[in-house]
């Protein structure tokens, strides 16, 4: 093995899986800590990071000329890009460049001339200290002596990374991700399709559910249950179910009704990874995963409070505080909270929530970080989880159309109450310049009471809806831990980033469930108040465990990148029926792997090809008593990513072939049993663009084509399309901010979402396509009234034209209306 060589400059940032949301500096100077508070969001973690000396780039000659290609954008980012390309270190007070932009730099310059060109037209200049560090200062400053230069505060090293694999990113373009590889990798280098929804995008669109946050992303179908699924994050990726993760660990539910859900206001970013992911994450659905990254402590102090009102008696209050404790950047905190209440779209229903998320980070030195975080989220009520029949909504009913607000339940019986509590930690320690270790763990508890009356079948008179009841009382406790070792080294001309890990997941649940009948109701003239009998309950206890070991190597030879990963899993489940005093065991194991290769052209174009696998255990046995094998998924993906150097953007395109095998279907020889002869396939094309131009314009656009079909099935579905999955989806969002002139401080945006036609389960009828418009308007009051600096007012409208549409029909003839118009207006103050 050869000595470790410097890697590409773009990778010379000390990436911390314990979340590098702050400059990694070792000094305890109070002056440094106070100055760091002034770092603007555009330059905060990711834009400006202090790299350890072991990773510093060797200084370039001040007089030698070299060709540079620095895109236009914020001045701090331009200085960062130039410093990276020149191989030098820059120090500055971040307040000097706050709000300044640069036209970029293209051509051949010396280091001094290049900095001078970037700073032209500003009140800033460049000087070089006796240590070779380049210093940005105002022209009135003096660096006549080395001592004067060397005492410039704060000493913040400009690094190449313009955003971090974790935490906030300015605008809508994120260039790094932690989800695809677990190592913190540029998105263009990840050989699998991935999108990042930044905090800026969520704020622009005022996303209040996970479904709303990802509705503009390629390949994601968020309307599988329309406007009644606020209590659950129900969505598909590439036509198949997807898992949700929080801070890199799976959100484990009970399999009944107790499913975790964390409010998106508590998140800094949301990453969508498409396709099988078992090689890094273990048992998983074939569609992919959505990883939500929490707002965690920052070095830069941040304080925000807000209030919001809207239609349907919507009321909301938020707060978000972060920064060093007592001015010491070695101890950081964050406290985020939200409270919300509103009427549901369906009559007689409510949404209520309060969530609190504190966190604390301890950094004893620049090699070690420990973050502790917690969650308390209480949902005393949630809107109906019911449905409407297809006849009278999608299909013609001679008596008329069933209203969007129709309630198929009984308010006197309806109940949904969920409490979620979690504590976790993220730890990282750099053992050396080559090796680092990480550990990420979380305990999660869910307590939930649920009972409901729901519609089943519409009678032949076209108005009488039969109904049933469902009751479930659940307690779920889960624990997950992921331990990793990462190494960066070279063997001859090949650079390696290797990852090895062991993870463990446990879930224990105790629940009592029952299903019964309820009186029918007239869908056109409903009369409520009928006596509802609670059904008898069946008590069940279940416990499951998953152990996994995995290894991955990311190799680089010149412009060729390759990734190879392999994993072995063991999973077991014990389910006890406490009512019948019976017990079932399920033991599974699976070997999964993935591989990918790509080539990085100098112009920013990166074509790639990858193969990946997944597995998911299935409960039950066939007629012989043999336990069912896990469902298996496999995907072939061919794509291209383009990250232009002239401006801040990321373009991606992918075609894929994704297949689920071992699906359960009817045993033709024994119809009362099942066999694993089923198979479903999804093929498609995804196009996505994320663009942030001139520090003013953000654009996010996507198009998805899907061909989903059951390729093998014994129950009559073979050759038919998957329910709720459209063949075509498209979206466009644009947001513009005015920085100068009489309208300075005004931001406005809008977007459109098209969803093509979908089909019922048996494909006997079609659900029509629909197109929805969204809009946003925001104004910074500090531009008009200086003493109100930090205050802003805003208004968002989703489904602006209040279009009535059926989002999907999901089981038999059960259908759901989509969200009607939602209007939110609010005031925020941050300092």
UniProtKB/TrEMBL annotation:
<dbReference type="GO" id="GO:0015891">
    <property type="term" value="P:siderophore transport"/>
</dbReference>
<keyword id="KW-0813">Transport</keyword>
<keyword id="KW-0406">Ion transport</keyword>
<dbReference type="InterPro" id="IPR012910">
    <property type="entry name" value="Plug_dom"/>
</dbReference>
<dbReference type="InterPro" id="IPR010105">
    <property type="entry name" value="TonB_sidphr_rcpt"/>
</dbReference>
<dbReference type="Pfam" id="PF00593">
    <property type="entry name" value="TonB_dep_Rec_b-barrel"/>
</dbReference>
<dbReference type="GO" id="GO:0009279">
    <property type="term" value="C:cell outer membrane"/>
</dbReference>
<comment type="similarity">
    <text>Belongs to the TonB-dependent receptor family.</text>
</comment>
<keyword id="KW-0812">Transmembrane</keyword>
<dbReference type="Pfam" id="PF07715">
    <property type="entry name" value="Plug"/>
</dbReference>
<dbReference type="InterPro" id="IPR000531">
    <property type="entry name" value="Beta-barrel_TonB"/>
</dbReference>
<dbReference type="InterPro" id="IPR039426">
    <property type="entry name" value="TonB-dep_rcpt-like"/>
</dbReference>
<keyword id="KW-1134">Transmembrane beta strand</keyword>
<keyword id="KW-0408">Iron</keyword>
<keyword id="KW-0998">Cell outer membrane</keyword>
<dbReference type="InterPro" id="IPR037066">
    <property type="entry name" value="Plug_dom_sf"/>
</dbReference>
<keyword id="KW-0410">Iron transport</keyword>
<keyword id="KW-0732">Signal</keyword>
<dbReference type="InterPro" id="IPR036942">
    <property type="entry name" value="Beta-barrel_TonB_sf"/>
</dbReference>
<feature type="domain" description="Secretin/TonB short N-terminal">
    <location>
        <begin position="88"/>
        <end position="138"/>
    </location>
</feature>
<protein>
    <submittedName>
        <fullName>Iron complex outermembrane receptor protein</fullName>
    </submittedName>
</protein>
<keyword id="KW-0675">Receptor</keyword>
<keyword id="KW-0798">TonB box</keyword>
<dbReference type="InterPro" id="IPR011662">
    <property type="entry name" value="Secretin/TonB_short_N"/>
</dbReference>
<keyword id="KW-0472">Membrane</keyword>
<dbReference type="GO" id="GO:0038023">
    <property type="term" value="F:signaling receptor activity"/>
</dbReference>
<dbReference type="GO" id="GO:0015344">
    <property type="term" value="F:siderophore uptake transmembrane transporter activity"/>
</dbReference>
